[in-house]
Each structure stands twice: as structure tokens, then as C-alpha cells.
Design a protein that fits this description.
CATH architecture of the largest domain in chain A: 3-Layer(aba) Sandwich
CATH superfamily of chain B: MetI-like
Number of helices of chain B: 13
Mean pLDDT of chain A: 86
Structural class of chain A: alpha/beta
Structural class of chain B: mainly alpha
Strand order of the largest sheet of chain B: 1-2
CATH architecture of chain B: Orthogonal Bundle
Number of domains of chain B: 1
Low-confidence stretches of chain A: none
Number of helices of chain A: 11
Helix content of chain B: over 70%
Helix content of chain A: 25-40%
CATH topology of the largest domain in chain A: D-Maltodextrin-Binding Protein, domain 2
Mean pLDDT of chain B: 87
Shape of chain B: globular
CATH class of the largest domain in chain A: Alpha Beta
Oligomer: heterodimer
Largest interface: A-B, 32 and 34 residues
Distance between the termini of chain A: 51 Å
Largest sheet of chain A: 9 strands, mixed
Chain lengths: 282, 319
């Protein structure tokens, strides 16, 4: 037994030595699936590179980048001013690249008669100013508000873009992960939630309008990619300094047609072609 | 000269062996001490750092605050706001609410099962019940939490017609499932360790089994049962995964048992991964950790003391 253990440790170490490069990717739970998919595919073509991908939330990834614990930080939001400053203090030169797009969809239960919501209504619902579906044209029932934990990039993005930095209602129930939010809304007739458009099964999307005069747009790859859908965002990779060597190859491959196609296949929104090409490093 | 069975070997190795054993015993003690020192050290800025105190002094964490001029003063936990709010009161209330519901659910069941198992069950029955209930303790709390999130919440909502699917009741019952084996085990042990002589005396005076257990065993084992309840309460306060998944995690101040609650432990679990090291938020989370540590430590210590006392008392009587 001991001998076996020793041998396996040796084997692992040998594999570690044989591979030339190990790249760690850490951060956003929204991006982790894409990172993993990219890593698998990239490693298939470049067996000498080992890529380790883990999630934990954008905040976790950024903290890891600042502490030098990861090569690539995946983040579904830009870094905050405070974080940029901390990076500078630590001598880290952050390099930001948008690698894919994501729309934040608003989830409703399939039984809910409401199909469209405006920004103002969403803001009212999530800050607690609107508490009954009746107030937005629905049935007379209490709105059950589901939100994400405050370490998620989705939470921060929603707070900035939809709530105008106001606080979430104290009645907003925070759940760990978009999957949990989708699950809760699918079981709760009067529930509302939000999260990446890649996630939803068992719930329906609300079409969102910037104002009452604007046309309400359903989130989809096309509307997010074109910028029509109002709650969309860039998904980033952050590096410490402009990437070179294997990091550069990986990035350029992710931004290539093949990489972006892969993103589309697993329900992320690919970058428009000219933007992807612009983001590549020559 | 007869041959010795135990031959004296190297004194040195015996000495080393004894030391290693005592170190492993001490290490638990040292571990607890170091953990407490570490947590408290990280929480210390709450008392010393004026920058932290500006946002989260003891006063601000305890009492209602007027966060925006002209608006009503309130309790609010919004650490990621433009005006960070660190009121611990809603979290404290949530923790207590969930734990109380857990106890209301688990104590009668746990104690009832313990009485049945120790007094009325046949030997075979007892040997089935005891391991099965104790098996409940082996279910990972994340599984219990998942069960509450998916199944129990829907069931309760449909039966009781609740507005909020995830609420204190749902979390409390799931917590109760985790607490039952603790109460059961301690209470059952307390009852079975009531000396035979007491039972025999009661039977000699003509008591039937019900009278024996109610008038003799139960009063004698009461401190032990109480200790079980107290230890269970300690577990209910510290349990994390179940409440994180089943309670909805909204920091509300209300007396209602069917609204969402956010507990101390769930708050730490949900937020600690993201905070910037050394920030106010980080410090406050460690302060919460210190509070939890002190609470559960005091509760468990109290429970153990009572348990020790009852054992002494009962053994004293038999001699």
C-alpha cells in the first residue's frame, strides 16, 4: 500500500516535470464552464501544457491574481477602482481582455403571466419599492425576490447596471449560485431571479426594455452580441502584465474562430468577429 | 527465575512513545487555543482601528442606524453597498430563530425517542432504533440542506400556504434533523445510566413501567436530558451548510417564523471567500466568527459541565 502510494506520488511528480507549463485559471463562476471547456480543448492540441481551472467567484479570482496565486483571473465584471489600486500597490500590472459576452437574463416562473419588464420596474422590484406583481401588471401576489450572494460578479453587475448602485431589498433572498436561483424560481410561481443566459432551464426569460417607450428585448445570443439586449456584459480574462509565451497562445486560441465557436456551443455569447481579432495579441 | 512476559526494552523509546501520545492529546487543546487567537486577532480592528470603527463600531453593529440623512433609522446588513451597513442584529435574530425552531422540532422527538428506546423498547427494537437514529448524524449537512432546498421547502409551502418558500421554518426543521441524534444520544445515555437500584426500588414499591420511567428515571436523568438539549442548541447555532441552502439568507428583522432568515454562520460561509484581506468587511466577518466561537463554546461547556455533574451525582448515590 505504502509502496503504491509512493509510486503514485512519484508518477504525479513525473507528469508534473514532463509538462513544460502549468497554467492556472481561477475566478468567476459564470465563466468557469467556458474556461474548463477551453482548457480541455487546448490541452488536447497542446499536451505539453497543463491548465487548471477553478471557480469561486470573480472576487475570489481577482484576489488570487492580486496575491499572485493564479496566472489568469476570470471575471464577469471589471475590477473596481479599489482593486486596481491594490494591484498597483502590489506591483501587478493588470492586463484586461474581453474573451466572451454574457447577457444577464431575468428569470420568471413559467406560470407567471408577465412577459416583459422595464428597467424601472426591475429596479423597483429589486430595491423593494415594488412588492406585488399587481404593480407591474400581474396577479395580486407578493413578489419573491431571489438574488445572488454578494461575491458574485453577476450580483455586482446587476447592482451597478439595474439598481444604479442602490441596495438590494432586505427581502431579497440570496442563494449560492445561479443554478440555485433558477431552481428556486422554477419552483416558485411568484419568484423572480437573474443570472447568465447560459443557465436557464425550467424557467422563462423576461423581455427587458430600457424604458417604457423602448421595445422589450428577449435575451439571446444575437441580441446580446449586437448590444440590443440592455443587460449584457463583457466577460474578462485578467493577466499580470501583457501575456507572453504559452499564456499568449492560449488567449489567442480562445479568441480565434475555433475558441469562440466553442463558447457559442455551450451557450455563451461569442464576441463579434472583428472585436475578437482586435483583442488578440500580435 | 521465572521468565518475564513483559521484558523491559529501551527506556528511551518508551519515553518517546509516551511523549508522542501526550502531544497528540495536547494538540487538540492547542489547536482550539490557536484557532481562537487567530480569529480574535483578525477581529481585533473592530476594537482598535478607527477606520474600521467608522463603519462598524460595536454601537453601529448593535443598534439602529440612520444610514441616509432624513430616512428612518434601521437595522441593515448590506456590506457591499455604497454606504456599507454592518448591523449584526438581523443576523443574530436569524441565528436564534432558526435554532429555536430546530429545538422545538428536535427536542420533543429526540427526548421522546430516547425515553422509548431506554425504557419501553424491547432489546431487539432498541438495537435497531439506536443505530438508525445515530445514523442521522452521519448524513452530511449539505445533503440535508439540499433536501430542504428541493423537497421540504415545496412540501411546507404547499401544506401551509406560505408566501416565502425558503424560510426560518424550513431551515429550522432541516437543522432539527441534524440535532435530533445529538439530543437522542445524550438523553438516552443519561437515562440508561440511571442506576438499577433506583428502578428496582420503584418496582418493589409497586410501580408499573410507565410510573418507573416518569417518576423515577426521568427526574433522575433530567440534567442529562437538559445537557443534550443544550449541546443540540450549540450545534444548531453553529451549523452552516443547512441554513445556507434552506433559509433564503435574507437579513430581515421580523418576529415571523415563515420569513427568510440569514444566520451568522451562513453569512461567513457566503461572504468570506470574496472579501479583501484586512478590509472592514473582512474584520466584521471575523468578529462574527469570534461571537459564534464564544457562543458555541459557552453553550457546549455548560452542557458538558451539567453532564459531568449528573454522572458524579448518580455514581455517588450508588456507592
Amino acid at each position: 500500500m505504502k509502496k503504491f502510494l509512493f509510486l503514485s506520488i512519484l508518477a504525479v511528480m513525473a507528469i508534473g516535470l514532463m509538462a513544460n507549463t502549468t497554467i492556472t485559471i481561477k475566478g468567476s463562476d459564470t465563466l468557469v464552464r467556458l474556461g474548463q471547456r477551453w482548457a480541455e480543448e487546448y490541452m488536447k492540441h497542446n499536451p505539453e501544457t497543463v491548465i487548471q481551472v477553478s471557480g469561486g467567484g470573480s472576487g475570489t479570482g481577482i484576489a488570487a491574481l492580486l496575491n499572485g496565486a493564479t496566472d489568469i483571473c476570470e471575471s464577469s465584471r471589471d475590477m473596481k477602482e479599489k482593486e486596481y489600486k491594490m494591484a498597483k500597490d502590489k506591483g501587478i500590472e493588470t492586463y484586461r481582455v474581453a474573451v466572451a459576452l454574457d447577457g444577464i437574463a431575468v428569470f420568471l416562473n413559467e406560470k407567471n403571466p408577465i412577459n416583459t419588464l422595464t428597467f424601472d420596474q426591475l429596479k423597483g422590484i429589486y430595491t423593494g419599492a415594488i412588492t406585488n406583481w399587481k404593480e407591474v401588471g400581474g396577479v395580486d401576489a407578493r413578489i419573491i425576490v431571489y438574488s445572488r450572494e454578494n461575491n458574485s460578479g453577476t450580483y455586482v453587475f446587476f447592482k451597478e447596471h439595474v439598481l444604479d448602485e442602490e441596495d438590494f431589498s432586505q427581502y431579497a433572498q440570496t442563494l449560492p449560485g445561479t443554478a440555485a436561483v433558477v431552481n428556486a424560481v422554477s419552483r416558485d410561481e411568484y419568484g423572480i431571479g437573474y443570472g447568465g443566459i447560459a443557465w436557464a432551464t425550467g424557467v422563462k426569460f423576461a423581455a427587458v426594455a430600457k424604458t417604457a417607450e423602448d421595445k422589450a428585448i428577449l435575451p439571446s445570443n444575437e441580441t446580446v452580441s449586437s448590444g440590443e439586449y440592455p443587460i449584457s456584459r463583457d466577460l474578462y480574462w485578467f493577466f499580470n502584465g501583457k501575456p507572453t509565451g504559452e499564456l499568449k497562445n492560449l488567449l489567442n486560441w480562445a479568441l480565434s474562430e475555433a475558441g469562440q465557436k466553442l463558447a457559442g456551443e455551450i451557450d455563451y455569447v461569442p464576441l463579434p468577429k472583428e472585436r475578437a481579432e482586435k483583442n488578440m495579441i500580435q | 527465575m521465572p521468565e518475564l512476559v513483559f521484558k523491559p526494552k529501551s527506556k528511551f523509546w518508551e519515553f518517546v512513545g509516551a511523549k508522542i501520545i501526550s502531544i497528540s492529546a495536547l494538540s487538540a487543546l492547542i489547536g482550539i487555543l490557536l484557532i481562537f487567537v487567530f480569529i480574535f486577532k483578525e477581529a481585533l480592528p473592530v476594537f482598535t482601528n478607527s477606520e474600521v470603527q467608522e463603519e462598524a463600531s460595536l454601537d453601529k453593529m448593535t443598534f439602529k442606524q440612520e444610514y441616509y440623512e432624513g430616512r428612518e433609522a434601521k437595522y441593515s446588513w448590506q456590506p457591499n453597498s455604497t454606504v456599507p451597513k454592518y448591523s449584526l442584529y438581523p443576523l443574530f435574530l436569524g441565528t436564534i430563530k432558526a435554532a429555536i425552531i430546530a429545538m422545538l422540532f428536535a427536542a420533543p422527538l429526540g427526548i421522546g425517542a430516547a425515553i422509548y428506546s431506554s425504557e419501553f423498547a424491547s432489546r431487539r427494537m432498541r438495537e435497531t432504533i439506536k443505530p438508525v437514529i445515530e445514523l442521522l448524524a452521519a448524513i452530511p449537512s449539505v445533503v440535508l440542506g439540499f433536501f430542504a432546498l428541493i423537497v421540504l421547502a415545496t412540501f411546507l409551502q404547499n401544506v401551509l400556504g406560505l408566501t416565502f418558500r425558503l424560510n426560518a421554518l424550513n431551515a429550522g426543521i432541516a437543522l432539527g434533523l441534524a440535532v435530533i441524534p445529538i439530543i437522542f444520544t445524550v438523553a438516552e445515555d443519561a437515562m440508561t445510566s440511571v442506576p438499577r437500584s433506583l428502578r428496582e426500588a420503584a418496582i418493589a414499591l409497586g410501580a408499573n413501567p410507565w410510573q418507573v420511567s416518569m417518576t423515577m428515571v426521568l427526574p433522575a436523568a433530567l440534567p442529562g436530558i437538559a445537557a443534550g438539549v443544550v449541546l443540540g442548541f450549540g450545534r444548531a447555532i453553529g451549523e452552516t451548510m443547512i441554513v445556507l441552502m434552506a433559509s433564503g439568507n435574507a437579513a430581515i428583522v421580523s418576529a415571523s417564523f415563515v420569513e427568510s432568515v440569514r444566520t451568522f454562520s451562513a453569512t461567513i460561509a457566503a461572504e468570506l471567500a470574496e472579501v479583501v484581506f484586512g478590509s472592514t468587511h473582512y474584520t466584521v466577518l471575523f468578529f462574527i466568527g469570534t461571537l459564534l466561537f464564544v457562543f458555541t463554546f459557552a453553550i457546549n461547556l455548560g452542557g458538558e459541565l451539567v453532564l459531568g455533574r449528573i454522572k458524579e451525582k448518580l455514581q455517588g448515590r450508588t456507592q
